[in-house]
Amino acid sequence: MSPSAETRPPSEARARLLGTATKIFYSEGIHSVGIDRITAEAQVTRATLYRHFSGKEDLILAYLDQADRGIRAQVAAAVSGTPSAAGQVRAVARSIVDGIRSPGFRGCAFLNAVAEYPDPEHPVHRAVLAHRQWFLDTVTGLLARVGEGRAPVDAAGRHLVMLRDGAMAAGCLFDPELISETFLHGVEGVLRDVSEKSSA
């Protein structure tokens, strides 16, 4: 059954609120932005916001959930287009570089968010850690396939995540082309190390 005209506007309002919050949170930070700014730019009332989100924290978590889904889809697309394990790692790395080179790049949404929410018990902090654990598990799993199960890859997975974190932080401060080249070079080093250990 198609949604009625009565149910469509609220979902459009929610999408508008989330889209507005995403743009502002990512470009300007989270704490510096109030509910009034978001509702004004989304052209909705406070009552509409509270109909869709219990408060600002709920909106922040929706923003991070949307970012998480986007990155998971990006990684899945990169992996699905490449048959070899090493090629999949390279494809994931290239997808990261595409983000660094994109207009308006302001670093990692999750690293930016956790810098504003240092309390490990806070729901925003926990959402960031959950996303990062998924990413670490994903790249470690890909590296395990590169090593064909013959090499320990936990350290290599952590190394790749740290390379990614450094590239995301530096990519909005320095020349993104240089940062991208350095990151990809580092990923090749991780792949070479895993391959050498698996054949030793």
Automatic annotation (TrEMBL):
Q: Which regions of the protein are recorded as binding DNA?
A: 34-53
Q: Which GO terms describe its molecular function?
A: DNA-binding transcription factor activity; transcription cis-regulatory region binding
Q: Which keywords does this chain's UniProt record carry?
A: DNA-binding
What Gene3D superfamilies is this protein classified in?
Tetracycline Repressor, domain 2
Annotated HTH tetR-type domain ranges read: 11-71
Q: Which PANTHER family match?
A: HTH-TYPE TRANSCRIPTIONAL REGULATOR RUTR, HTH-TYPE TRANSCRIPTIONAL REPRESSOR BDCR
> What is the protein's given name?
TetR/AcrR family transcriptional regulator
> Which species is this record about?
Streptomyces coelicoflavus
The record lists the lineage as:
Bacteria, Bacillati, Actinomycetota, Actinomycetes, Kitasatosporales
